[in-house]
Amino acid sequence: GAVVSQHPSRVICKSGTSVKIECRSLDFQATTMFWYRQFPKKSLMLMATSNEGSKATYEQGVEKDKFLINHASLTLSTLTVTSAHPEDSSFYICSAITVNYGYTFGSGTRLTVV
Amino acid sequence: GIQVEQSPPDLILQEGANSTLRCNFSDSVNNLQWFHQNPWGQLINLFYIPSGTKQNGRLSATTVATERYSLLYISSSQTTDSGVYFCAVSAGKSTFGDGTTLTVKP
C-alpha cells in the first residue's frame, strides 16, 4: 500500500516555457503532499507543502510565482514550473505521508531546460 | 530547524562485507526513515523507525531516540546495494541528511 505515482519521469523543455508535474496517491487519500528538489549529488530540499483545498506553504527562498502548486483533490497535487530557465533544471520529487508507512515518494521527474 | 548528520559520507565495500551507516539528529523527532536512492533516482523506503529496532532481510535499523541517533546495518552487501542512503527525520516538516554514498564492488 501507499503508492505515489509521479509523471512525467523525464522532461526537456525550452527556456521560457512552463512544465507541469503530476503527483498522485494511488491507493490512499493524501490531504498533504510535499515537493522536493534535488541537485546532483546533493540531498533533497523541501520546496513546499501542498494542502488539499488550500494554498501551498512554501519554504523560505522558494519563489511561489515560479513554482505553482495546486492540490485540487485528495489524490492529486501538481507542480508547475513557470517560465522555466536552465537554472530550474533539476530532479523534482513529490511525497505524501501515511500513518503506517511514513513518507512515500514518487519516482521523481528530471527536468532539463534548454 | 533540526540538523541531520549522516556518516560516513562515502563508503566503498567489497561484495559480501558488512557496514554500518549512522544518522545523528539535533532534536526530538516523531518520525525517522531510512531511504535508498538508486542510480535512477527512485527513493525506496527501507525503514520507518522512530524508535526501536527493525529487520528486513540483510538490512536492519536501530533508532535510539533518547540519544538522537539511528543506525542502518547492511550485511553481506551486494552490488545492487550501491546508491545513496538517506536518513530523514521529521517533527512536522521532513529534513534529510546529506546521505551516504555506498559503492559495493564485485
Question: If you had to describe this structure to a student in words, what would you say it looks like?
Answer:
The complex is a heterodimer of chains A (114) and B (106). By secondary structure, chain A is mostly beta strands. Helix content of chain A is 0%, strand content 55%. Chain A is built from no helices and 11 strands. Chain A has strands spanning 4-7, 10-13, 19-25, 32-38, 44-51, 57-58, 67-73, 76-81, 90-98, 102-105, 109-113. With 106 residues, chain B is mainly beta. In chain B, 0% of the residues lie in helices and 61% in strands. In chain B, strand 9 (83-91) and strand 10 (93-96) form a beta hairpin. The mean pLDDT of chain B is 94. The chains are: A mainly beta (114), B mainly beta (106). Chain A binds chain B through residues 34, 38, 42-44, 46, 49, 91, 93, 95, 100-105, 107-108, 110, and chain B through 31, 33, 35, 41-43, 45, 48, 86, 88, 90, 93-99.
Number of DSSP helices of chain A? 0
Radius of gyration based on Cα positions of chain A? 13 Å
Tell the overall outline of chain B. Answer: globular
Q: In percent terms, what proportion of residues of chain A is strand?
A: over 45%
Q: Outline the low-pLDDT stretches of chain A.
A: none
**Oligomeric state, counting identical vs distinct chains:** heterodimer
Coarse morphology of chain A: globular
Task: List the chains of the largest interface with their residue counts.
Answer: A-B, 19 and 18 residues
Helix content of chain B: under 10%
Total strands of chain B: the figure is 11
**Structural class, from secondary structure content of chain A?**
mainly beta
Distance between the termini of chain B: 40 Å
Quick check: average pLDDT of chain B? 94
What fraction, in percent, of the residue positions of chain A are helical? under 10%
